[in-house]
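Hi Y.,

Following your request, here is the sequence exactly as I used it, all 370 residues.
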Amino acid sequence: MEPFRALIAGGGVAAIEGLLRLRRLAPDIDVTLLAPNEEFAFRALSVKEPFAMGTARRYPLEDIAASANAKWLRDGLSWIDTEARAVHTTAGETLPFDALLVAVGGEMVPAFTHARTYRDAEADDIFGGVVQDIEGGYSKSVAFLAPDGPAWPLPLYELALMTAKRAEGMGASVELCVVTPEPAPLASFGGAAGEAVVELLDQAGVTVYASAQAQVPAARHLLVQPHGVELTPDSMIAMPRVQGRAVRGLPGGAQGFIPIDDHCAVPGTGGHVYAAGDATAFPVKHGGLGAQQADTAAAAIARSSGADVEAAPYRPVLRGMLLTGGKPLFLSARVVGGRGFESEVSTEPLWEPVEKVSAEELTAYLRAQN
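Below is the corresponding structure, written out as C-alpha cells. Let me know if you'd prefer a different format.
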C-alpha cells in the first residue's frame, strides 16, 4: 500500500509551521515541501534594520525539510487539478497528492504611486535613508500611510514610534503622523489595544489621523480626507496592500483570496485541499494567524491520513508584539469576523514562548537552531 502523500506549497511562516506540525502528528506519511525560495527569512523583526538594531534571521529550506524528514522541491505552484489531485509546477512537473496545503502567501502591491512602499525584505534600503536624514537634520517631517483594503499595519506604528524615539535621542525636531483607515490604531486587536497605542503615539508626539483616507497626488503632497488636512512631508512611507494570488484550479474569493472553512479546507475540493496564511480570505493578515491556520489544516490532513488525532476547528487568537524603541507592548485578542474581542494589553509578555510571531512549531524549531 502506497503511503499517504501530503504536499505543502509555500516557503513562509504558514508553510513551515504546517510542515512541522504535520510531521509531528503523522510521522509515517510522505511529505513534500514545494517552494521556489532557497531560504526562509524570519522577517518579523525587520523594522529594527533601519535603526541598526539587528537583521532578519535566515534558514535554508533544505535543512528545515530534512529536519522534518520531508522532501524539498525548489519550484513554484502553477495550477491545481483538484479532480486528478495533482499540482502542476512552474517548471512543468506534475505532483500527485492525497492532501495539499496551499500557503503561498499574498502579493504585496503598492497602494500609493508617490510614496515609498515598505517591504520587510528591504526594510533598511527603504527606510534606512529616512532615519539617516533625520539624524543629519535634513528631514523634518515623515508621514506613515496605511492603505485601504487588506493590509497588516502593525509595522507602520512600530516605524513611527521607533523614529520618534531615535529623533528624541538625537535631539532632532521632526513632525510625524500616521494616516489610517482604521477607526483606531490596530483596531483588529479591539478597543483596549487602540487606546493603548494612541496613548503611546501621543506621548511620542506622533499625530494620528484615524478613519482617514490618504491621497498622494504628487511627491511631498499629502491630502488627508475627510479631515481636510493638507501636508507636505519630506518623506512618506506606506504599507503595501495585500492581494490574493488567484491560484488557478481553486475557487477565488474577493481580490483573489482563497475561501476556507472552519478546518481551513477549501470548499469544493472534497477535503483534499487546504489553505493557510495571507493567501486565504480571512480578513486579518498576520503571520501568527497564518500559523494557526496551518496547525488547523495539518491536524485535518493528519486525521484524513489515518492518524488518531483531534481535528479542532480554527479559532483565531491574534497576538502582536509592538516594538516601540523602548519596552515593547504585547497585544492579544480573539478574532471573530475580522474584529478583536477579549483584548489584552500589557508591557509584560502575554504568551510563552515570547516571539514576534507566535507559531508553536516554528518557534520551537528556530530556538533549537539558535
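The chain has two domains: 5-106+244-313, 110-241.

Thanks again,
Q.
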